[in-house]
Each structure stands twice: as structure tokens, then as C-alpha cells.
Amino acid sequence: MARVFSGMQPTGDLHLGNYLGALKHFIPYQEKDDCYFCVVDLHALTVPGDPEALRKKSLELAMLYVAAGVDPNKATLFLQSNNSAHAEAAWLMQCVAKFGELGRMTQFKDKGQGSESVTTGLFTYPVLMAVDILLYNTDEVPVGEDQKQHLELARNLAERFNRQYEEIFTIPEPRIPDTGARIMGLDNPEKKMSKSAASPANYVMLLEDEKTIMKKFKRAVTDSDTEIRFDPEQKAGISNLLSIMSVVTGKSIPALIEEYQGRGYGHLKVDTGEAVIEALRPIQQRYQALAKSNEIEAILTQGAIKAREATSETLAKMKHAMGLVTF
Ligand code: TYM
């Protein structure tokens, strides 16, 4: 039985990229593996925001995990800040990580844009992410493609710690899906779908109403050609629709190309919109039911207990290996 860990930030609303690149893939693991799924609220603090909104978004994200199929009887679901081992281990690992390697993280460069006034938390963020994973002796980490570099850092830090101090950490493997690992913006398929995009036409939110979803797909930016071909370089918009359709329906991309060839882009856009609406409908229904109950509180209370239990030994080993004395 493998140990599986993944997390998502409670900033903004979850979008289709988060679902198709990550969350959807979490679900099958819980049938065979020992899974920890986390609302990474400490990560959300790296960019300034409203405290009340963070509290609300954290609970909403936890409910979305469950609505999307995470079963609290099979997997552990918890809020990162409820297990203080994460913050404690992050400090220890910051004393192993190098300034230079953190400066090379492309997400920091994109988000920080060379500004002196970004928080130091934004800079050390990947170290916190590394210990999120390492504290649980994780074997596999299902994530979208944009987390690949962070995963590489987590592996490097684990190896360095093991060499420098003691063999404590398992070296985690990223699990990046073949299709859907990088869902692109509907208004600009050259850039990934993102919660921080300037226009709401960029993304589809998991809790968005059906009419708006369809409108966004109908207006999805494509090229002015008519050929249906999977070519993310030359035909980014069409390739994005094919990827979305493929992950949502389970049909292969070649089968979809055959099905839509010669029928014009309009059909593909509408059918992809419909397939997404169908896929999101049960999630939205479960979410509404959960939001009316207070079930999530009990789930997260139980999850926090299990998360603390799972990490206490590794944290103690880490501290001892580094020369700290505990009474
Ligand atoms: P976050 O919250 O930005 O995204 C959550 C997950 O969604 C994936 N994702 C996408 N996949 C496909 N297409 C897209 N356009 C797209 N946008 C986002 C991300 O790759 C991710 O898997 N640093 C992480 C959170 C984190 C974490 C961890 C993840 C903190 N600790 C430990 C795994 C393990 C993040 O900001 O993800």
C-alpha cells in the first residue's frame, strides 16, 4: 500500500484545471492506497488576503474535496494549519534548502516578478510544500504539470537531508496525468487556466452555473482553420478542448478527432461544454447538500487527529537528527 499525499490552495475558487489536472485523479487512489489530502491554508497566507475569506474558502475547499469523491472513511482530509508539524518542519527544512535554488523556482519568479515587497513566505513556499509531502513519508504525489519543479525540489531536499543528517525521508514520485495535466485558459489557450487570470472568461469554476459554463465554452478561443488535430503548439485552443473532453468522457484523443473531423469547431465546443456540465452536476449537487449540513467539521476534526498521528514520529526523528534535544 503506497502513501499518497496531495494538496490544493484555498485561494479563489477551484477551476476545471484543478479538477482535471489534480482532484479527479486523487479519487481512485483511496481504493488501494493510504491517502492524505490537504487544504493547504498556510500556503494561502503567502499572498495578502482577507482572514474571513480564507476561513470560508478553506471550508469550501474541504467540502469540494468530499463533493468530488474524497471519502473520509477511506482517505484522511485535513487543514494544513491543524497539524503544526508542517510549520515546524518547514523551519527545519529551510535550514537545509539553499537561497539560490529557491530563487530559481519559476512560480516564485512569475508571482513575485522581481518585486522586493513580496512576502518571504512566497519565497520559502516550496520548502513548506516539500515538508507537506516528506513528513508523511509519501511515495506518490498526484499533481498537475505546474507543480513538477516543486516536486523536484522536494526530492532534492529529501536526498540532501538523508545524506547530510540521517536516512529519514522516502523520495516521493510525482504522478502527473498524461492528459489534462495542463488545462489552458479558454480565452487564451497559450496560457494555463488560472484563478488569478485577469478575465473570468479564462476559467470555468467547479461551482459555476450551467448557462455560464456553456457560454464560456461557446466563446472559447480557437484558430481560424477548420481541421481538428491535436497539436498544442499550432492549435492550442482545439488541443485544449480535446484534452478537456478526453479527461471528462474517458474517450481517447484519436477517437475524438475521428468523431469531430469535418464537423466544424462549433460542435466540439458545445459538446465539450455539455460534457463538463454533466461531469460537474453531481459534484455541485453533493456540494450543496454538504454546505447545508455541518458534516465537514467532524470530517476535518478526525482528519487533523490522523494527520498529527501520521507525522509525529518523522518530525521527532528530523529534530533529533539535526541535533535538537527534546524533554
Ligand atoms: P494549486 O492550489 O495551485 O493547484 C492545485 C492542483 O491543481 C493543479 N492545477 C492544474 N492542473 C491542470 N491544469 C491547470 N491549469 C492547473 N492549475 C492548477 C496543480 O498542479 C495542483 O496539483 N503548491 C500547490 C499546493 C500544494 C501541494 C502540496 C500539492 C502545497 N503543498 C503538497 C501537492 C503536494 C499549489 O499551489 O497548487
From TrEMBL:
Q: Which SUPFAM superfamilies match?
A: Nucleotidylyl transferase
Which UniProt keywords are listed? Aminoacyl-tRNA synthetase, ATP-binding, Cytoplasm, Ligase, Nucleotide-binding, Protein biosynthesis
Cross-referenced Pfam families: tRNA-synt_1b
**Which GO molecular function, any one, fits this protein according to its record?**
ATP binding
**Does the entry feature the keyword Aminoacyl-tRNA synthetase, yes or no?**
yes
| Compartment(s) where it occurs, according to its Swiss-Prot or TrEMBL record | Cytoplasm
Q: Name one GO biological process term.
A: tryptophanyl-tRNA aminoacylation
Q: What is its EC number?
A: 6.1.1.2
Task: Write down the chemical reaction(s) this protein catalyses.
Answer: tRNA(Trp) + L-tryptophan + ATP = L-tryptophyl-tRNA(Trp) + AMP + diphosphate + H(+)
Q: Which InterPro entries match?
A: aa-tRNA-synth_I_CS, aa-tRNA-synth_Ic, Rossmann-like_a/b/a_fold, Trp-tRNA-ligase, Trp-tRNA-ligase_bac-type, Trp-tRNA_synthetase
Which GO CC terms are listed, alphabetically?
cytosol
Quaternary structure and interacting proteins, as annotated: Homodimer.
What is the protein's given name?
Tryptophan--tRNA ligase
